[in-house]
Design a protein that fits this description.
Elements: E1 8-12, H1 17-28, E2 33-37, H2 41-46
Length: 50
């Protein structure tokens, strides 16, 4: 088990650029949920997964 698996992450600036890359990496590493804060809600919503 890695350190992020099953945890909730908050990523500021997570809707574009480096923040989006971090959010995606956390999701791929098994984070239970990711909360992103950023200026572009359309980009943020596009990262949703079910």
């Amino acid at each position: 088990m890695n350190r992020i698996e099953g945890k909730i992450a908050v990523v500021t600036g997570g809707t574009q650029g480096l923040g989006a890359a971090v959010a995606k990496t956390f999701a791929e590493a098994g984070a239970a949920g990711i909360i992103t804060c950023g200026r572009n809600s359309d980009n943020g919503n596009s990262y949703q997964r079910h």
